Amino acid sequence: MKVLVAEDEDLIREGLVEILTSEGYQTIAAEDGQQALQLFDAEHPDFICLDIMMPGMNGYDVCKNIRLQNQHIPIIFISAKSEEIDRVVGLELGADDFIMKPFGVKEVIARIRAVTRRCLAHSDPDGVQQAFTLGDLRIIPGELRALRDEQTIELSYREVNILHLFAERPGQVLDRDTLFNHCWGMDYFPSSRTLDQHISKLRKRIEIDSKNPLIIQTVHGRGYRYNP
Amino acid sequence: MHIRLTLILAIIVLLPVIMITWLGYQYANEEQAMQTIRYNRLLQQNLKETDRLIQSVIYKRERAMTQIIASRFPTPSDAIRTLIRGNSDIKNIFMLDADKQLLHPPALQPLSRAEQTFLQKTQRLRDYLTMPAKKQPRPKPTTADLSAPRTSIQSVPKKSARLLGLPLQRKRARLANSPADNESWQGQAEQGDSHLEQGWLTWFWERGLNLLYFQRDRAGNLVGIELDRAKLIADIIAELPENNGAALDYRIALLDGKDELIYQWGRQPRAGAAPLTTIMLSAPLSAWKLQFFTTTPEKSNAVYLSMAAAATAVLLLLTALAFYLHRESGRDMREARQRMNFVNQVSHELRTPLTNIRMYAELLDQELDDEQPAVRKRLNIIVGESQRLSRLIGNVLTFARQKNRRLQLHPQPGIIDACIENVIKSFSESFDKKSITIAFDGHAGERVLFDGDCLEQILNNLISNVEKYACTGRYLAIASSQQQDLTTIIIEDDGPGISKATGERIFHEFYRADNSLTNKVAGTGIGLTIARDLARKHQGDLILLQSAKGAKFQLQLHTPKVSS
Amino acid sequence: MTISTSRQRRLLHAVCCAVFVFAGMPVSAKPIGDPQVQLNVGLDTPVMLAGKKDKAYLKIGLTGYTLQNRGDRAAVNVAIVLDQSGSMNGQKIQKAKEAAKMAVNLLRKDDIVSIIAYSDHVQVVVPSTKVQDKDAVIRAIDRLRAVGSTALFAGVSKGAKELQKFIEKERVNRIILLSDGLANVGPSSPAELGDLGSALAKMGISVSTIGLGLGYNEDLMVQLAMRSDGNHAFVENARDLARIFENEFNDVLSVVAQDVHIEIRCRDGVKPMRVLGRDAEIIGDKVVAKLNQLYSDQEKYVLLEVEVPATAPKHKRQVADIHVQYTDMMQGKHKQLTDDVQVAFSQSAATVTKRINRGIKGAAVEQISADRNTQALQLRDKGKVDEARKLLLDNAAYLRQNAELVPEQKSKFKALEKYNKEAAGGLDKKTWSRTRKSLRKKTYEIESQQSY
After folding, report:
1. Contact status, residue C427 vs residue C435, Cβ threshold 8 Å
2. C440 in any annotated domain
């Protein structure tokens, strides 16, 4: 999934980009409204994160413009303007959500995941459609969650893809590159540390005991493996 | 609001001005009336003085006539005629004896033409005077008729013949003696037909008012003396003032019964000016009148002008005041709005760096292994503090907005307990540090409509209070429950607690239980205010419950159920 | 020896003095013996036609004696009452002031003068004062200005008041009134002013009236003068004012007798009918008249028309007893004069005619003509111009006839005849005002025997 981020504040933009990337999205960034529109036309993202207060064209105008061309694409406003009127205007213009600064990372992730679910409900040509099982987990990609017994575990887009990969190749050792290729996309060159971190985080989520993982096992020096 | 203020100010300005104008006008009117009355009274005094002068002429005549009649009045007609010829005051005389027979002019002898006319003129008068008292009709005043000389008789009763300042002093006995005025005639006036004894008769004949003086002489004859009218008028004119260089600023005019001018003195008034005041003369000339004219223009408007000036001054003053107040309040409002904008601006400015601090701290946290708990801990502190800063800013904004009544809630479907748990989690680190346990007993798991930010802010304020003031305690207990549309959350700690006395005051703005500089606890005093205001905005309330140990708050919110 | 000598000497001294006194030509003004007022009474027809009731004219004439020396004259108490109404503005007030000033200059130190000016109000310019400081009086006169209306009655009243401050029987008390307009403030009719005049006369005050220009009311002015026994003058041009004032003052300064009471008692069936030219009281057979003053060398008379019953010839009737009382100014004494008149009868008309007293007849003619003038005036007032003219021309004829009959009065009658003819010619609207004033003046002059 491709996400467009428009934010004039460098730090926030870069931070957002990192969060989104970490979630598993292909992220493109714009510094102002004009650039946002150009990128929208060029790259055809799956959803858009817009800041309102931007030089040149503000987020509202960008939203209006986009909506003229595409009614369905999800748009999230991320802004420090938090008056009711601002929210109303934003939502009236066709935004799907409104995140207020200062925001917590987790909040952003949760909202983005919610938006993703909605997207996936529509279409995700690259993504996984069907639910699948992994160990005692039942993973429903469209809802970005996994079920163990009655418990729900929220998953990121990437995590879903990672698990899907494991589920597709049970017993196989998936090395770093494989995982990178499938789950990270062409433009990313994460370090192995990144992968380890992700796996570690994923384990913390889905494993009963993350210290002794049952679903994703480490194969030292080579990668990881799912043992059904 | 602006319009309302303007309206109120307008009323404040206009109402007193209208009142003052109205009262002032009334006062001016009254003053005017008073002044006119006073002035008129003064004028009347003046005119009465003149009347006195005229009366003195009448009085002198009367004395003269009385003397003539009293002291050896001549009986033979020739002697009477000689008397008349030599006395310029007397026009003619008649004399009736006790049997009402005409002694003079002598009935059976030839008379001069003047005497014949005189008898004709005085026929009715003589009849009147000789009528028995009981049959005497009340004399009615009548006006002159030039076409046919008629006589209309006016008897001047004794009492009204009293002259101003010159009391009529007669005694019947005086007729016998030389004139000596001692006692009043009063006592004898009521006896019999004594009102026929002496007095004046006035009647209208030809040119105007004629005077006849009558009196009984020693011999009991009734003598009537017709005064020479021209001489009387000339004497009256002679007595009245003339213009002698000294400039008077008024004019007095004497008019007869036909309103024709007899005499006047003083400065000429403006053409067509009406007399300021008029009095009728005293008897027996009561058909005549005196008029007073002033030559100076009426100064009547002075009072009105001054009143109008005062009202205008007040109006100007109040208007100026109103403008000033308006401007000031406008300025205040403008300043308030500027401050509001400033606050907004500042909070907006603050949020961006806060966002960054938090975001990067969290990102950093994500990259950490579990193997670096110390680093994680420090990061958590950074995050926690940035959150705290965020809350503070949120409080201030809420407070500012609440003041401006611009705070709006946005209820969303959600689960209360989840929200509470989030809040607890954000405090967990700092509470751990202070060794306070948070126990949460949540029974508000239903999906309901509520404003999560609002609940968060309330809880943040309550729990941070615990963090600040009840850190001596061991625990913080939060319990939630739901019933129908009402969610109840109880927050209690085992800190020092809040006394009943301060119980209500803690909710007041800026109230801090201890404001001393040595108080090491940081706080602005608006936390609980905001918390309660928000609770109330959420159609609920925040109250302090009584507790044996520590502080116990009850938060209630209106949370309608959501049909999923 | 010594005592008798001194007594003789004294006696001789006295005799010499007496001789000197009686022999010496009197250089002093006082004539030997007191001068007297002359009383002349008579009928115009002392002999009347017998057997017929007829009327006759009884004249009672009084002539003041001559004043030897102007210094003898009685002291004067005069009030000059001037009109300062707006119409006097200009030359009139100028001339009036000049005249008044000239008059003041004629007065002596022991005379008393007061100046009153009237318009719509009255101003006593100079209150009654002895003429000590003539300049002050003259200055006060100078300050007069003309503005306002005409309160004539009030002016005269104030004048009378001023006079009364120093009124004495020993003084000649006179008001001199000047007016150019109609009285319009206060009593303003001839009758009212006449009443005032007679009241003033009773006090011994006479009012001489001077009418200036053509705007005054001559009836009013004449009534006031007549009833108070004063003089009246018609001054058409203000330039003549000074001369008129002088004439008036000359009169004032030549009064020899005042307070003259004339009583005529008709006798023997003779009936008094009317008095011509004067006010008089007729009570039965008694006629009472009064003259305020007699002037030096002037005769004033009362002309009484009587009806004499038919009488047989050769019979005489007592016509009237005349009794006159007066105050002599020079001697300050009350005096009396008496006389009586008889009439004889004849059957001869020629005798009657021959015996006509021409002087008295002349006086009668004068008075009758004056009476007719008054009638003509009244006719003209009523608009009966032609009748008035006829009357005036008839009057002229009458006067011409009598000019023959009474040769002594020829010139006078001729002048009167001419005057009547002129008046007859001046009856049209344009000239009537002037003619009327002139008529009034003339008539009054005759009736009162005014000297100027």
Report:
1. yes
2. yes
Strands (E), B406-540: 412-415, 437-443, 447-450, 475-483, 486-493
State the Rg of chain C over Cα: 25
Q: Mean of the pLDDT values across residues C314-341?
A: 90
pLDDT of residue B514: 62
Percent of chain B with pLDDT over 70: 81
C168 and C271 part of one domain? no
> Nearest chain C Cα to B92, which residue?
C199
Pick the CATH number of A2-122 from 3.40.50.12500, 3.40.50.2300, 3.40.50.850, 2.40.128.280: 3.40.50.2300
Indicate the pLDDT class of residue B246, thresholds 50, 70 and 90.
low
Any alpha helices (H) in C204-290, and if so which ranges? Answer: 218-227, 241-252
Is the pLDDT at B219 greater than 80, yes or no?
A: no
Residue B450, SS3 per DSSP: strand
Q: How many domains does chain C have?
A: 3
Closest alpha carbon to B211 in B197, B196, B227: B227
Length of chain B equals 564
CATH 3.40.50.410, applies to A132-226:
no
pLDDT category, B157, cuts 50, 70, 90? very low
From C446, C418, C432, C430, select the one nearest C379 (Cα to Cα): C432
Token pair 């004898």 in the structure block, residue: B188
pLDDT (mean) for C302-325: 91
Q: Which amino acid is at C258?
A: Q
Task: Compute the CA torsion angle B448, B454, B455, B461 (nearest 10 deg).
Answer: 180
Burial B472-495 (b: 16+ CB within 10 A, else e): ebebbbbbbebeeeebbbbbbbbb
Residue C6 lies in a domain: no
Taking 3-state DSSP, the helix, strand and coil percentages for chain A, each rounded to the nearest 5, stand at: 45, 20, 35
- Give the model's pLDDT for residue B174: 27
Asked whether the whole model's pTM tops 0.80, one would answer no
pLDDT at A6 over 90: yes
Q: What digits encode the pLDDT tens for the residues B284-340?
A: 888 899 998 887 655 567 777 887 888 888 888 888 888 888 788 777 777 777 776
- Domain of C432? 358-448
Query: How crowded is residue B167: how many other Cβ atoms within 10 Å of its Cβ?
Result: 12
Closest residue in chain B to residue A85, using alpha carbons only: B408
pLDDT tens-place string over residues C146-181: 888 889 999 999 999 999 998 887 889 999 999 988
> Which residues, in sequence order, are bridge partners of residue B102?
B96
**Among candidates B113, B230, B239 on the partner chain, residue whose Cβ is nearest the Cβ of C199:** B230
Domains of chain B: 1-182+195-298 (no CATH), 327-407 (1.10.287), 409-564 (3.30.565.10)
- Give tens-digit pLDDT for B220-231: 788 889 999 999
Nearest to B234 among C157, C201, C284 (CB): C157
Strands (E), B444-525: 447-450, 475-483, 486-493
Is the reported ipTM for this assembly greater than 0.90?
Answer: no
User: Judged by CB atoms within 8 Å, which residues 205-234 of B form the interface with C?
Assistant: 207, 228-231, 233-234
Q: Could you tell me the CA-to-CA distances from A153 to A108, A142, B363 in Å, in that order? A: 17, 13, 21
pLDDT at A126: 57
User: From the list B351, B363, B410, which residue is nearest A101 (CB)?
Assistant: B351
Cβ(B526)–Cβ(B392) below 8 Å: no
Those chains having 3 or more beta-carbon pairs within 8 angstroms of chain A are B
The answer to whether B526 and B465 are in contact (CB under 8 A) is no
Integer angstrom CA distances of residue C201 from A191, B87, C152, C196, C198: 158, 10, 18, 9, 5
| Residue C290, domain member (yes or no) | yes
Task: Please choose, from the candidates B190, B168, B192, the residue with its C-alpha nearest in 3D space to the C-alpha of residue B179.
Answer: B168
Least Cα separation, residue B358 to chain A (angstroms) = 7
